[in-house]
Amino acid sequence: MDTWTLNPCYLYRTSPVGCPHTFGEHVKSPDVTLTDVVFYFSVFADNCNAPLVSSLPHSSFQSSSQSSVGYAAHNAKLNRRDGAGGWSPMVTDQEPWLQVDLREQMEVTAVSTQGRYDSWDWVSGFLLLYSDSGRAWKQYRQEDGRIVGNVNSEAVVQNKLSHPVRTRFLRFVPLDWNPSGWMGLRVEVYGCSYKSYVADFDGRSSLLYRFNQKSMSTVKDVISLRFKSHQMEGVLLHGEGQRGDYITLELHRGRLDLYLNLGEALWRRNISVIELSVHLLDDQHWHSVHMERFNRQVNLTVDAQTSSFQTRGDGHSLDVDYELSFGGIPLPGKPGTFLRRNFHGCMENLYYNGINVVDLAKRRKPQIHSVGNVTFSCSQPQLVSCTFLSSSSSFLSLPPPRPPASGGFSARFQLRTWNPDGLLLSLQLHPGPQTLELQVSGGRLLLGLHGSGRHRSEAPTGESEREQPIRAERITCRAADHLYSSGSPIPSFQGCMQLIFINGQPMNLSLVQQGLLGNYNELQLDTCSIKDRCLPNLCEHSARCSQTWTSFSCDCSGTGYSGATCHNSIYESSCEAYKLSGSSSGFYFIDPDGSGPLGPTQVYCNMTEKKVWTVLSHNSSAPVTVQSSSLQKPHVMRLNYSASAEQLRAIVSGSEQCQQEVVYSCRKSRLFNTRDGSPLSWWLDRDGERRSYWGGFLPGVQQCSCSLEENCVDMNYFCNCDADTDAWANDTGVLSYKDHLPVSQVVVGDTNRTGSMAVYSVGPLRCYGDKSIWNAASFYQESSYLYFPTLQAELASDISFYFKTSAPSGVFLENQGLKDFIRVELSSPSAVTFSFDVGNGPAVLAVKSHLPLNDRQWHYVRAERNVKEASLQVDQLPLRFLQAPADGHLRLRLSSQLFVGTASQQRGFLGCIRSLTVNGVAFDLEERARMTPGVSSGCPGYCSGSSSLCHNRGRCLEKSNGYVCDCSQSAYGGTTCNQEVSVSFDRESSVTYTFQEPFSVMQNRSSQASSVSTDSRAREDVAFSFVTSQRPAMLLTVSTFSQQYIAVILARNGMNLTQYPFTHRSAMLQSGFLVTALLFDLSPLDQIDQDVHRKYTLSSDAELILIRSLTLGKVTSKCSGIKNGKRFIGCLSSIQFNHVAPLKAALTNRGSSLITIRGPLVQSNCGALAESTLSKTVWNVAEINRNFSKITPNLHKVTQKLPKFMEIVQKNIKNAHDVFKNCLKLQNFVQNCLEHGRN
Length: 1239
Hints:
Layout: H1 21-26, H2 34-46, E1 50-51, E2 61-63, E3 98-114, E4 123-131, E5 138-139, E6 147-148, E7 157-177, E8 186-193, E9 198-202, E10 206-218, E11 220-229, E12 234-240, E13 246-252, E14 255-261, E15 272-275, E16 287-294, E17 297-302, E18 305-310, E19 318-326, E20 344-352, E21 355-356, H3 357-362, E22 368-371, E23 374-375, E24 386-388, E25 395-397, E26 409-417, E27 422-428, E28 435-441, E29 444-450, E30 454-460, E31 470-479, E32 495-502, E33 505-506, H4 509-513, E34 519-521, E35 523-525, E36 544-547, E37 552-555, E38 561-562, E39 568-569, H5 575-580, E40 586-590, E41 601-606, E42 613-616, E43 624-626, E44 635-638, H6 645-654, E45 657-667, E46 681-684, E47 690-691, H7 705-708, E48 729-735, E49 745-748, E50 757-762, E51 765-768, E52 776-779, E53 785-788, E54 797-804, E55 810-816, E56 821-828, E57 831-837, E58 843-848, E59 859-865, E60 869-874, E61 880-883, E62 898-901, E63 911-918, E64 921-922, H8 925-929, E65 935-937, E66 955-959, E67 962-966, E68 982-985, E69 990-999, E70 1022-1028, E71 1033-1040, E72 1045-1051, ...
């Protein structure tokens, strides 16, 4: 093993920000190995749990108050019965706390609490604060909020800290206590001593570490330190070289940035920049930094949050000349400097590649040069912060000191908040009723004088996106006189303040706390309790996190995901799923692992055959000609697909079958050496392994397809090309062994002889089938279940499946932990329940149906839980939401296996479950069912197969001797829901469908939910066909209860989406009048997307809340912006609005109170006639140009009889308006054409 000659602390595998006293005594040898040090530290870490409080003197204990002498703070030692047996505050103490001084800085790893001896007094929940000075406090934050205390007075509850804290002072702040008694507390703290090497920089000083040689070149660097800063800007480290290398680590707006350049020219584009989303680093508390670089790979960790990146360019070493500077850059004008302000604060245990820089400086070693005043003890600024906790009731009222001789009033303070709005200062002026108010409005300071009509804006303070906290280093306002307070109809300020000066005199907040100065409410003194709720970022899939004081929200735009935390994919998982939803062939984005990490990719879905094919192309679709290649210098072609390797693997593994065609045309170019059979050309599979078979699904056979089919030109060879003739030959094969697909590389090595040549091509990867959709299991016994690994659902999880049953109740699945659990069940014949507990108590979501769910028909269930909310969806019923409690427990901790069915005392499930997907991973129920008693693979019944028996959203219903199609949710009719429903409209015709109850696009989402979070039902799907000869024409209007309107209008220049009172968007319809499918999406998009099938996404910046009605044809409501002149004359057919078919409902339920019909409304076959004539292919221009003979026979016969008509269509197929000059003549024209065709 290599011997490390570095400082042993440097070898600590976590951030080496400190070493114990005993380390230097026991490990001083320069020949310490890595194993020795790691072993030592593992033993040391296990032993850092010594009691630290039991031996402390009485003077180390303080409290906010005490009930009497016997309840004093020094009686609060664990298991002691001194005095009254513990500490208890006065009953009137509104902000009680118990404080312990450990006498020196220690590393604290755990705390224990106990109630007051032999009493009804104990604390059941508390906050833990820590401080170096006893003045500025910081809250120890556990991810799940407050720390759990006691349930009686005698039992000891120990809480191990998830990350140790290094501190001298600890403060216990009770939050909850025994409601039948009072607060009582005894405590113990566990940890060990902590060695600290500290340097204090005053903002004008720095330390220079000078190298022994002129330049230092390193391929590996490790830098670690702890710091606490008094300012939000400052350089921590800087080094540079003459050839342009440099490294800079600096604070910028309280965030740490790393700039690194390795061996590149001094151009900014070559700079590698890493900006950690760790804010609030200028809070005057300690923060740890650990940077590791090996060649171009860099890891930067700040307070346990790690970010990794690779440097730009080709350089691998960092060349630094002469010196490294810490704390600032002593000489101005050095290149690579982006912030020249020196660091003001303290650094501790600063190590550069194992060298203790502070220790060398303290011992005045010649390698270290001090610039300015660097001291070796950390000064403690006497700053006292206060936190305004409530946005409605927090205030601090202070009487102003004597005004200055010049008169007037002045106030100065520093603030910090996440909220964009809040009242900072309110001052009643005399004489007169005028009020001076200073507020934060939209992230900017605004100073207003009310009662005078004057209002003016002051300085900007921060970014409006609230990615960073709003800060102000100094705010000064001057006015007349009287007092300073907070309280107004404007929301109160919620955040932190410090350094409050009134009339030039500092305000002593300690006197405020003691009740000797002013008055306050909902105020926390001695600490700034601002919390970065975006650290860690709980928004998924790289979504952007923003926050206020009390919550965070996720911006899902551009991610391909939706929901409160951007967990749900907005795309289907396969082409098969798109077909089942009623889609036709075209390019689609699919997300093969749903809510998993892979992300969406674009594929072509070919649905023209019985099988649905998923097609993924690559960068070399054209034939490739190869000459002059040999085994020594082969031709190599790498294939890059439209999806990543991980996405390809997921698509292939989730498909029933995949294949890829390889065509190899040759002239004197062999695939195999005829003497020894070794391959002369080959291809690489998805894992980079060499493969030399050229067809079929038998990877062990080195043959071509002609050999497998026994039709080679020369049967003495296994491939046609191996005959090695001067004539062209061909070996074409279809590769179908899934585990090897797709082809990643082709290598050709036998075209270097005279007359030798090869031409090859590799087709796209083609897969069909979705193994998960019809993967099913049948449960015949209530006690039977299938088990799978523990659900990985700590922060977010989604579960979806289909079920059918005749049983009145039963548990679909459950997973349990010590206390936490998650369960989805059929709780009654008409209700599905989703329940869970993450430590905040059981939460229950239920969806009730007006029809029974145990009807032996398939029903869809999707349950999701994340840190912000839980949701439950059943079929097309309204989605139910449950908001997570603020500052509650976040992590769902499960330990048992995941049971499909139940292994507990709950009632088991009887029936079928299929397509079970958890967090984007499909569970193989059939495989597990084959080995489980009481469960069988598959599910019997006509409607259980993968073939779609009912079309266009029709629902297959099982019968004893067959099946029927329920077309109630479809816009189509007929026995299999494939007959269009069409109606002819005249100038006065209209149909209005009124929803039974307010239909919210946001699906009952709580008003507290993020406005930027895209919900899974923010997309509204509308599909319809129409034939008309009039422009402009009103096709469809949607209105809401809040007087919002959206109208789809056929304008003179295309299709328009008009919103009132919002915006106007257009989609150009190049092909004229007939629209076979129109989709519009109300989620925010930047442009209108079109594909070859004329599907449109019309965007809206507005959110439709509480949809009231949908109108077809003439608009009768009197609303501004919707003109009655744009009336529709023509044919409307098969209109679908989500799960509602308003046109069909108007024909079948004319007496319904939900349907309002005005004017003549005649059922017609105009939609079917137009479709049979044009066969929906007039819109697929590309497909017609490629193969016009594929157009349906009726149209083909028409074109044969009418060559002039055919010529018009071919010349101007993109503009159907020129072909069909008016739609009323179109019907008669087509009927005559069809009659000629039949003749």
